[in-house]
Amino acid sequence: MLRLLQLPDNFPGKLWLSSMPGRFEPMEEFLGWCRGVSVDEIVCLVGSEEIAEKSSEYAAVLEAGSCPLPVEQFPIPDYGAPKDIEVFVAMARHVAEQLQTGRKIVLHCAAGHGRTGMFAVVVLLASGMPLKSALVAVQAAGSEPDTADQNTLIKKAAIRLAAHKTAKRNKLAFLTGAGISAESGIRTFRASDGLWNGYRIQDVASPMGWGKSREKVLEFYNQRRTEVLAASPNAGHLACAELEKDFEVTVSTQNIDDLHERAGSTRVFHLHGEILKGQSSRNPNLVFPLDGPLIRIGDKSPDGSQVRPHVVWFEESVLRMKEATKAAQEADVFVVCGTSLAVFPAAGLAQLPRPGTPLYLIDPSPPTLPDGNWTVIAEPASSGLRRLANILTRNIH
Ligand SMILES: NC(=O)c1ccc[n+]([C@@H]2O[C@H](COP(=O)([O-])OP(=O)(O)OC[C@H]3O[C@@H](n4cnc5c(N)ncnc54)[C@H](O)[C@@H]3O)[C@@H](O)[C@H]2O)c1
Questions:
Q1: What is the Cα gyration radius of the chain?
Q2: Which residues does 348 contact at the CB level (< 8 Å), separation at least 6?
Q3: Between vectors from CA 328 to CA 327 and to CA 333, what angle results, nearest 5°?
Q4: What is the residue with the minimal CA distance to atom 35 of ligand 1?
């Protein structure tokens, strides 16, 4: 039986407590209950040996990889408490964050009592609920910590989470792409079916294209520049900028528009250049602001060469990678928004955060992600980044 746990009101997700799937009922019956309430995933607090001992059916589907729901395993010994409290608290926080994004989760150990109760209490603590209310809520859902060790662990976790609440999580690093500007009316590359507003990408974004037809390349970027100047930052850009109140924010962006800056972000690394700047066609380090929306044939840069857009083309070196790499490696929280993670080396930044760093993705059509503890907010940037800001600042204010 799935037992629903009462979560704080502002949590759109659902958490059920349960005994081990297939232990007291046929596996198919358990899965039927999950289907009935549209469960998204299972969090399992039992190791593989104990599962094999207590539910051969569950063990079989896990081993065959045929469980229809994703199973996240976090083994704790029977009647025991986890050894590494930091990892345990991080896992409980991760589940709380998933619940805040609307995920529906089943949590289980073997009998669904002690370990499940302990973990559920810490999830509620991580959701901002006081200890006493968390214990009452978990008891009402039919579980509770069984042993002195489990009760001690809960008290330690409560202290850690309280300390965390007041601590400012210093470094928040964003990696953004075309999707964050989509709601400002600037089309993503993908949305254009491989064509960028009717142009073949290699004709307008490569040194070869420039060699073939400077007119065509300039015309293309003149259109993009005019489009960018007419656009305004959306709620997603604004949410990134507002987070500077609470975090040391860096934004590594593949975008060539200036919407992050216009929203108020102060540390923006443009990996692929900036459309509102011009560049010498002889010296890539000679970069300067443009007077207006258009670059014309004959416009001269200070070294006398034809002005070209300050945009990184295929085969050219990506910019600001040193700063972006450092920001990703040192991040306390790392967020990806609006990129298909298809263009390297920029996409590789998502592989750099330290293990255990909370990772978030905001994208209505999530791309394939590198390994890690990702919380996926499958929404457009405007609402998704607002939701993320609420999650991140809940622990501070
Ligand atoms: N605004 C710009 O400066 C701009 C626009 C188009 C392309 N580009 C360039 O094209 C290349 C494409 O790579 P990319 O990964 O940035 O873009 P991409 O087009 O490959 O992927 C866009 C991603 O954004 C997501 N998306 C769509 N709408 C969204 C929304 N409202 N909110 C959040 N996410 C949304 C898509 O699902 C997709 O995963 C980059 O090199 C970039 O420089 C830049």
A1: 25
A2: none
A3: 100
A4: 179
**Active-site residue 272, yes or no?**
yes
| 144 contacts 375 by C-beta, under 8 angstroms | no
Q: Residue 354 has what DSSP assignment? A: P
241-295 pLDDT tens trace: 999 988 999 999 999 999 999 999 999 999 999 999 999 999 999 999 998 899 9
* Residue 236: count of CB within 10 angstroms of its CB: 30
Dig out the tokens for 122 from the structure.
């810490």
Do 352 and 250 touch, CB atoms closer than 8 A?
Answer: no
Overall pTM surpassing 0.70 (yes/no): no
Contact 127 CB / ligand 1 (< 6 Å): no
Locate tokens 């300390």: which residue? Answer: 163
Q: How far is CA 190 from its chain centroid?
A: 20
Phi, psi of 20 (to 5 degrees): -65, 130
Higher-confidence residue of 189 and 364: namely: 364
How far apart CA 114 and CA 111 sit, in angstroms, is 8
Which atom of ligand 1 is nearest the CA belonging to 362?
33
Residue 184: Cβ within 10 Å count:
22
**Catalytic: which of 108, 260, 270, 272?**
272
> In sequence order, which residues have a C-beta less than 8 Å from that of residue 13 and are 6 or more positions away?
7, 98, 99, 100, 101, 102, 103, 104, 105
Q: pLDDT digits over 148-175, tens only? A: 999 999 999 998 887 766 555 589 999 9
| Integer Cα distance of 256 and 274 in angstroms | 4
15/39 Cα distance (integer angstroms) = 9
For a pocket test of ligand 1, which of 188, 195, 336 has the largest count of ligand atoms closer than 8 A to its C-beta?
A: 188
Q: At what angle do helices 85-100 and 148-166 cross, to 10 degrees?
A: 70
Torsion angles phi and psi, residue 60, rounded to 5 = -65, -45
Between the CA of 306 and the centroid of ligand 1 the distance, in Å, is 29
Distance CA 4, CA 2 (A): 6
